Amino acid sequence: SAAEKGGYEHFMFKEIMEQPRAIADTVNPRIKDGRIVLDDISLTADYIRDINKIYIVACGSAYHVGVVGKYVIESMVRIPVEVIVASEFRYCNPLVDDKTLVILISQSGETADTIAAMREAKRLGARTFAIVNAVGSCIAREADDVLYTWAGPEIAVATTKAYSTQLTAIYLMSIYMAQELDMLTPELLAKYIKALEKLPDNISKLLENKGEIQYIASKYFNSKSVFFLGRTLDYAVALEGSLKLKEISYIHSEAYAAGELKHGTIALIEEGTVVVALCTVKNLFDKMLSNIKEVKARGAVVIAVAEEGHTEIEKEADYVIYLPKCDELVMPSEVVVPLQLFSYYVSSLKGLDIDKPRNLAKSVTVE
Ligand code: G6P
C-alpha cells in the first residue's frame, strides 16, 4: 500500500530517501568520545597485527561494496585485500589460513553462495567477520564476528540503503583497524570521524536535487547502452551504478576503469552513446577529463559527476552533477546516490516494475 511505501510510489524510492537516516543509525552508535567503538567484536589489536591477508567475499551489490573496501582498507591499514564473488571463492583454492580474515558482506545474511563461502573459510581456519543487515540471519549467527548495518527492512529487489550502510560499515571497520593499530594521528582520526558524521546531511542535500537527475533521465531513458567510467574508488561505484541500471531498466550497461577504455570498449562509443563519467578522485581528475574528451570526440553524451567547485568539467561534459564536498574516503557514499536516482527515473519513465524486476530475487538462497 501507499502507506507502507511512506507515501511514495515505490519501495525503491522510499529506500533511497531513507539513506541519510540509515547511515546515521549505522554510524552514530559506533562513535564514542571521538573513537570508533565496535561492541561485541573480538578483533583485538593483537589479532589485527597478525592478519596476513583479508578476503572480502560477497555477491551482487555487496560485492561492489567489497571493491570499495579493498581500496579503503589497503590504503588505511596496509594489509593486502582480495575481493571475490562468493560463488568463485570456494572453487579457486583460496590462500586462506588462520592468519586470514574473511569479511562476508550480505544484506539478507541468507545468500547461499555467501553462506557456503563462509563455511569453507572457517573450515580452512580463517577468522570470519560478517557485515549483515538481517538480524539473526544465518551469516550473522555463524560468523565469528558480526557488524550490523541498521538499514532496516529493504523491500525493493534493487538494493540502495543496504548498499549504502554496508559502505559505512566498511569505513567504520577500516578506521577501527587503523585506530587499534595506532596508525592514525589524533587529527586524522578526528577528520575521518567527522567525515562519517557529515554524510547524512550531505546525502540529504543531494536528494533535494533529484529533479535535476529526473530531467537528465527524461532525455536518455531510451538509450540502448550506457557506459559508466571511473578510476579507483569511482570505478568501484561505477560497477554499482551499472548494475543498478541493468537490474531495473533492462538497458545494457558496462562499468569500465576509465584508463582501460582505449583497450577495446571505446570501439562501442558512437554518436549519442551515454557515458556517465565519475570524476571525484582528486588526483585523477585530469585523467578523467582526458577520458571525457576521448569519448566526446566519438560523439558520446557525457554526464559527469564531480565534487562541488570542480567547474572546469563544464567545458567538456554535457551535464555535470555536483556533490557536496567531503573527505575522499567516504565519497563513494555520495557518488552512488545520483546513480540510484538515475536508474530509478529511467525505469519509471519506461513504465517498468521497479520494485520487482524480471528474473531477479531479493535474496538468492540456491547456489
Ligand atoms: C541478489 C539481490 C542483490 C544483492 C545480492 C546479494 O542478487 O538482487 O541486490 O546484492 O543478491 O544479496 P545479499 O543479501 O547477500 O546482500
Describe this structure in words.
With 367 residues, the chain is α/β, with parallel strands linked by helices. The chain has helices spanning 11-17, 19-27, 45-50, 60-77, 86-89, 112-123, 138-142, 161-180, 186-208, 210-220, 233-249, 285-296, 331-349, and strands spanning 31-32, 35-36, 53-58, 81-85, 100-106, 127-132, 145-148, 225-230, 252-257, 274-278, 301-307, 319-323. A five-stranded parallel β-sheet has the order 4-3-5-6-7, with helices on both faces. The chain has a five-stranded parallel β-sheet with strand order 9-8-10-11-12, with helices on both faces. A two-stranded antiparallel ribbon has the order 1-2. Helix 10 crosses helix 13. The longest helix is centred in the middle third of the chain and has 23 residues, at 186-208. The site of 6-O-phosphono-alpha-D-glucopyranose (G6P) has 15 residues, from helix 4.
Quote the beta fraction: 15-25%
The helix/strand class is alpha/beta
H-E string? HHEEHEHEHEHEHEHHHEHEEHEEH
Shape: globular
Q: Name the average pLDDT.
A: 95
User: How many β-strand stretches?
Assistant: 12
Please outline the major beta sheet: 5 strands, parallel
Radius of gyration: 20 Å
Query: What is the count of helical runs?
Result: 13
Helical proportion, percent range: 40-55%
Stretches with pLDDT under 50, minimum 5 residues: none
Bound molecules: 6-O-phosphono-alpha-D-glucopyranose
**How do the strands line up in the largest sheet?**
4-3-5-6-7
Distance between the termini: 33 Å
